[in-house]
Amino acid sequence: MKGINKEKIKLLDLSFLLLACYPLLRFHHSSSIFIAFCLLCLYTAIKLRKFYFSKKDIKYFVFSSFYFFMLAGSILYSENSKVGVDIILRMVPLIIVPFILFFFKPTFSQSLKIKALNVFLFANLIYSIVLFVIFIIFRNDPIIEGISSDSFFLNFDKTQHILDSIITDDLLFIHKSYFSMGFVFSAIFALHQSIKHFNENKLKGLFYLSMLFYFSGLVIFSFSFPNILALAVCLLFYFLFEIRNAPLKRRVFILPASLLIVCVVLGVYYKTKDIDVKRGMNFINSVVQNKNVEGNDARIEIYRTYKGLLDKASFKNILIGYGIGDEQDLLHKELANRIDQGKNKNLLFFNEEFNDGYWFKTNVEIKSNMLDSPFETKTADLLIETNTKEVVSHNISTEINLDKDKIYTFSVYAKKSSSETLVLRLGPIENRAYFDLEKDIVISKYEGIITANIESLGNGWNRCSISVTGNGQSLAILGLSDPKGTYNYVGNNKELYIWGAQIEKGEIPSAYLTNNSELMNYAYERNLNTHNNYLFFLLTTGIIGLLAFLFSLFLLFRFSLKNKNILQWSFCIIIALNFLTENILSRHWGLMFVSVMVLILFTSQKPNNNVKEII
Question: Of 80, 98, 350, 442, which residue has the fewest beta carbons closer than 10 angstroms?
Fold first, then answer.
């Protein structure tokens, strides 16, 4: 019997180590390993006849899992109960993990736990290297070609989009908020190990120190705000808890810590030019100022939409929520209502933000907010030719659906710089016209144009417009031309200023009106979720469910502080901060991170003298 038990325990240990490989596995493979681990825990408990159902164990299980029971119970008052059941089934690990911890109490040696964390670190290392290798291999692919190193390092969203386009069929999951959590934890674990090994084995100490810098660099590169903050807080607490009262560790730590701080400061300063970082800062500004800010994040509209739902909620909805099956439908419908209420005559989004991905760039680049607009706000963008070797077009474009046989007017404000010629096109290529911004004249218009006008506004600004007949899905294009009004030509790095694009029904351009619904439209079209786990629980299970979830999180923090375990504490900080901006528990990767880390960090630990029996 003892031999059988040892064999099964070894198998359990193996599955324990394999759990930490999830960053490299497809979703169904990591799920299979998780299920196997749970079954082995059950089998081992049956074989050893060790189950723990004391009042204390039951109490802690209920306290830590009550939020999940609330979620499951909310199916009963969800109109779409089938969706609710599907979501609950995906979130089952959240109830299985505490069940295992409190009633089976699997124990693993400290040595095995460190091995599992090393496996996790190497899995994240390989994962990140694979992403870089894929990017390098496909660097000459049409989807990547022409993207500069600055674009790569200063626009991670673009990098992420490119990698998503190359890697299909869930081979690797690419979402910075999720893998950054693992990078932050890997950095803190590497710091922990480097301090531990530096005096015993300098080679190991240096390796882990390099991993600290490597993963810290990756966190800065991807620049997920919660994880940047988590890294800073975890490093601070590591110094306060682990280093302050240990003079030897402090001497070992002080030099690399100083170097790391310098690198982090420089990295963060460099990344302030990142489009996504700017969007994050704009998001914070829009929350503080309670108004739209250029280059904002769609999360702001999601949160505003949920605020509207809460404002209209009944006492029952506030107390126990709307139900897990209805939460996403409610958001989608409320977004649609807000978009409908806010509709105006301008059909274009991002009317003044031509650097946004809404506008596709063809052989041009955009420098945003370079000059005062006609209304004396510094929001005019500079349009610059980039291809100076080939005969090509130089413009930006976006797709828009126009009712057939209806007349539409496309207008934009423009001012000459080193180029004075503007082209506007709406629909097929014959629906275009050319404008001379210096002479304030229409150079030429093609047969698809009903009317073409240029209106001088003073201070060098003109409003150029064309009217055409709608023809379904169409391209709206504005760009540069040579002085002769040629569509394709060899560029010469010429540039002009643009601002305030508008497409409206009718033949005569009316007063310009910006369309502020772009972020709502973005959230609606992509059916975005809450992007906040606390908000998710508030809307699905009300105040009671949210308080239950917060209490379960409090128990983890309390346990970590009681143990004075910096790795447990770091994990708690990472998830608590990421819950603010992502619905972490609604995605497989997030569930795996939480489940695997809880199992590794919070399972019972065997005494060191038993290490040989379980490894």
Answer: 80
Q: Do 554 and 572 form a contact (C-beta atoms < 8 A)?
A: no
Edge-to-edge strand list for the sheet holding 472-480: 360-362, 394-402, 472-480, 421-426, 432-436, 441-445
Strands (DSSP E) found in 351-491: 360-362, 364-371, 380-385, 394-402, 407-416, 421-426, 432-436, 441-445, 451-458, 461-469, 472-480
Pairwise CA distance, residues 452 & 89, whole Å: 59
DSSP 582: S
Pairwise CA distance, residues 103 & 603, whole Å: 11
Question: pTM score, two decimals?
Answer: 0.78
With a pLDDT cut of 70, the percent of the chain lying above it is: 82
Rounded distance between C-alpha atoms, residue 183 and residue 582, angstroms: 16
Q: Is the pLDDT of residue 558 over 70?
A: yes
- What is the chain's mean pLDDT, rounded? 84
* Whole-number Cα distances in Å, 447 to 137, 437, 608: 46, 22, 85
Phi-psi region of 501 (alpha: psi -120 to 50; beta: other; left: phi over 0): beta
* The token pair that represents 508 in the structure block: 């005569």
Question: What are the pLDDT digits (tens) for 229-250?
Answer: 899 898 888 877 766 555 545 5
Mean pLDDT of 158-162: 63
Tell me phi and psi for residue 349, to 5 degrees: -100, 170
The Cα–Cα gap between 483 and 498 comes to 18
Contacts (Cβ under 8 Å, ≥6 apart) of 265 = none
Burial class for 130, CB neighbours closer than 10 Å (0-12, 13-18, 19+): middle
φ/ψ of 39, rounded to 5, equals -65, -40
Domains in the chain, start-ordered, CATH in brackets? 360-516 (2.60.120)
Closest CA to 146 of 413, 451, 361, 407: 361
User: 479: Cβ–Cβ under 8 A, 6 or more apart, which residues?
Assistant: 362, 364, 383, 393, 394, 395, 396, 422, 423
Burial (0-12, 13-18, 19+ Cβ within 10 Å), 463: buried
